[in-house]
Amino acid sequence: MPIEILMPALSPTMEEGNVSKWLKKEGDKIVAGDVLAEIETDKATMEVEAVDEGTLAKIVVPAGTEGVKVNAVIAVLAVDGEDIDEAGEGIGEEAPAAEKAAPAPAAAKSEAAAPVAAAPKTEIAADPDIPAGTEMVSTTVREALRDAMAEEMRRDEDVFVMGEEVAEYQGAYKITQGLLQEFGERRVVDTPITEHGFAGVGVGAAMAGLKPIVEFMTFNFAMQAIDQIINSAAKTLYMSGGQMGAPIVFRGPNGAAARVAAQHSQCYAAWYSHIPGLKVVMPYTAADAKGLLKAAIRDPNPIIFLENEILYGHSFDVPKLDDFVLPIGKARIHKPGKDVTIVSFGIGMTYAVKAEAELRGMGIDAEIIDLRTIRPLDFDTIIASVKKTNRLVVVEEGYPQNSVGDHIANQVSQRAFDFLDAPVITIAGKDVPMPYAANLEKLALPNVGEVVEAVKAVTYR
Amino acid sequence: MATAARKAPAKSRADGKSSGLSAPRPADFNKDEELAAYRHMLLIRRFEEKAGQLYGMGFIGGFCHLYIGQEAVVTGMKMALVDGDQMITAYRDHGHMLAMELSPRGVMAELTGRRGGLSRGKGGSMHMFSKEKHFYGGHGIVGAQVSLGTGLAFANRYRGNNNVTLTYFGDGAANQGQVYESFNMASLWKLPVIYIIENNRYAMGTSVSRSSAETDFSHRGASFKIPGIQVDGMDVRAVKSAGDLATEWCRTGNGPLILEMQTYRYRGHSMSDPAKYRSKEEVQKMRSEHDPIEQVKARLLDKKWATEDELKAVDKEVRDIVADAAEFAQNDAEPDPSELWTDIVL
Q1: Mean pLDDT of B29-33
Q2: What range(s) does the Lipoyl-binding domain occupy (chain A) (predicted)?
């Protein structure tokens, strides 16, 4: 039996990639360990090594093909005595392989990286903070974050970035790609694996007046450093009677990625939003990621900037402006509506956006508010919306107890009780550590159906 | 005898061989230096005695950790600094603040939680800062200041300003993990930081031998190629010469250095500690044989650089400063209630 060589996954969140180069040609003898091809995503390039011996019978996916799905057949290996023409016969003509070999449109490419989100069908409402008529450029969240850091580093010599693998490796998730080349090792600092220590070093440098961007490879690892974040960064301004603070940004991916289980899948939005002295930002779109990261770097306070690995590859329109800075603490109406308010933030927005499209089909006109900042929380925007729709559903991926949604529900009930026509429903991740198994993981996260049901409940449909 | 030699001879450890470092001889102080050291140490001593009194009277709340007995450490190190050099420590910090010339009124009024305190009454004994005097706290979490101090040194290197950071911690904090994370980065990046381990023999109530597998703290940087020196922390001249060596070491780009200051606190860990874990004789022996202030006083008298009366006059002057600070701290108003909501974010 000929052996099918499949498109490998490079990361837990990868769904497709590009076959950039073949290093062997049809008819070549192959031994185990030979490098057959190079594949790449927007994050990394890797070599595909042969596992078996034989002859390369057929290259199914030619070099230069983009958007090849993981597990698609990319080549066929004839083993001992098999005829290479026979071995390759019919493989390339199979429908799935042909589809995989076809170059994917650019938009689909970036969206497909996310298991939870197809291309959002909801048109994003114009952000009043972006001047009308501004040229927009489709940009991934990953690029937007990198651009924000690079722009601020060009602008201010005191800004530097430190963290694990931020320099030579170009970022574990490639967010710092190119920064070492532009700014050098003085300002792009690879640290040892030592979160507690380098968080403290960052805060100390900030107390001395520098403006560090501290990247945590994921916020799960920041648990090791949480004392420095809270006791040193957040409280010094108060304890010093205003003499000394810490202008520092802690940033990195937060929340569940895909199939990395309990210790790597946790949302810290509610945790950090509990702390006076911190600001907590959690963007969804690339425009917000860029405008708010630039604002965070300029802000004189310690900022927790919560990103999401799954969103890194998503593309959104980003305004083409020389200096695009958004206000921290201001929510954005993602889509106006009149029947119900759905409040969400970060990756939670993917559920809200998909649910909105379904609800529209049912004749329900939902307003979606993207909080963007979790602390300080923009209650004015939420309450103005609730006064209009009289119904509220909050969506997030974090744990349910003491969640961001709980706090919003509490405040809305105190400030706008008379405007509510139904109890506020909060949708969160399930109250369990994140399981590994694919089916259980799916069950542990919120889903679009839950959002739709919640909206139906509060609108009495 | 005030001038008796310390039991442990000064020696260099860790990377001492390759670094060529060994503990220097105590500095030869001239008359002015001896008098300055005497006055500075006495100010700390009298200030802390007064703080202890005010605590007993209920003017100072919460925790209050006195520095009595350890005065030579901050005083000698301060004498080795130049303008712009920074200092950071944990919560036994009043002596450090006075050494860095923070106002006695401001420190005492912070202890009593008044609006004239250095943190406007919002920090208390453990949390005071002065950007102007390059004093970066005053930290309540044991060991956290070590990473922060390493970060201050990072900023100095980043700016290329040739200043050094004195990062103080105790024998207790020396067992915290982040200390070693900081050592590693400081050595890797050749940061200009002096780690001053004030070994007063007790981490709260746990003696060094009961808490530490390696009780020679100058050796604690060995895994990170950070040389260390043991210093008689009761002799201000020994501290000063070690400080000179260490600041020179850092300023010439050699990276971090550890100074283990062998010292002793006379009082309990905090005001509520009766110190039952050590004998009265042990304390008495340190006071009578190694007291840092008495050592200077004996030399001043011995060399006829000062008379008893002149030294009494210094004491009177210091007591007046402390009395004034205490008077201010007891009578100053509490913070305005509106202060509750200020300085949270900028």
Answers
A1: 97
A2: 2-78
- Domain contains A113: no
Domain extent for A20: 3-103
Q: Which of A204, A227, A300 sits opposite B149 (nearest CB)?
A: A204
At B12-23, the pLDDT tens digits run: 444 444 566 888
SS (H, E, C) chain B: CCCCCCCCCCCEECCHHHHCCCCCCCCCCCHHHHHHHHHHHHHHHHHHHHHHHHHHCCCCCCCCCCCCCCHHHHHHHHCCCCCCCEEECCCCCHHHHHHCCCCHHHHHHHHCCCCCCCCCCCCCCCCCCECCCCECCCCCCCCHHHHHHHHHHHHHHHHCCCCCEEEEEECCHHHCHHHHHHHHHHHHCCCCEEEEEEECCEECCEEHHHHCCCCCHHHCCHHHCCCEEEEECCCHHHHHHHHHHHHHHHHCCCCCEEEEEECCCCCCCCCCCCCCCCCHHHHHHHHHHHCHHHHHHHHHHHCCCCCHHHHHHHHHHHHHHHHHHHHHHHHCCCCCHHHHHCCCCC
Measure in Å the smallest separation between the Cα of B152 and chain A Cα atoms.
Answer: 5
Domains identified in chain A, total number? 3
Could you tell me the CATH number of the domain that includes residue A98?
2.40.50.100
* Residue pLDDT, tens place only, A331-353: 999 999 999 999 999 999 999 99
Task: Provide, rounded to the nearest whole percent, the portion of chain A with pLDDT above 90.
Answer: 77
Average pLDDT, chain A: 91
Calpha distance B216→B13 (Å, rounded): 9
- In angstroms, the CA B14 to CA B221 distance is 7
| ipTM, interface predicted TM-score of the complex | 0.91
Contacts of B140 in chain A (CB under 8 A): 231
Closest CA to A346 of A319, A374, A381, A366: A374
Q: Domain span at residue B176?
A: 12-17+30-323
The DSSP result for A116-133, as a single string, is: S-----SPPPPPTTS-TT
DSSP-derived letter for residue A255 is B
| pLDDT tens figures, A83-129 | 777 776 766 554 444 444 444 444 333 433 444 444 446 789 999 99
pLDDT digits (tens, 9 = 90+) for A232-252: 999 999 999 999 999 999 999
pLDDT of residue B318: 97
> Quick check: is A334 catalytic?
no
What CATH number should be reported for the domain holding residue B74? Answer: 3.40.50.970
Interchain pair A208, B144: CB under 8 A: no
pTM of the model: 0.89
Rg, Å, chain A Cα set: 24
The answer to whether A200 contacts B151, with C-beta atoms less than 8 Å apart, is yes
Q: What residues in B contact A227, CB-CB < 8 Å?
A: 141, 144
| Domain assignment present for A255 | yes
β-strand pairing of A211-215 with A249-253:
parallel
Q: Of B255, B146, B188, whose CA–CA distance to A189 is shortest?
A: B188
* CATH number for A178: 3.40.50.970
Q: What tokens appear for A242 in the block?
A: 């205003």
Interface test with B, best of A153, A193, A195, A201 (most B CBs within 10 A): A201
- Check CB contact under 8 Å for B158 and A242: no
The answer to whether residues A274 and A366 belong to one domain is no
Instruction: Please state, in angstroms and rounded to a whole number, the distance separating the CA atoms of residues B112 and B116.
Output: 10
- A111, containing H or E segment: helix A106-111
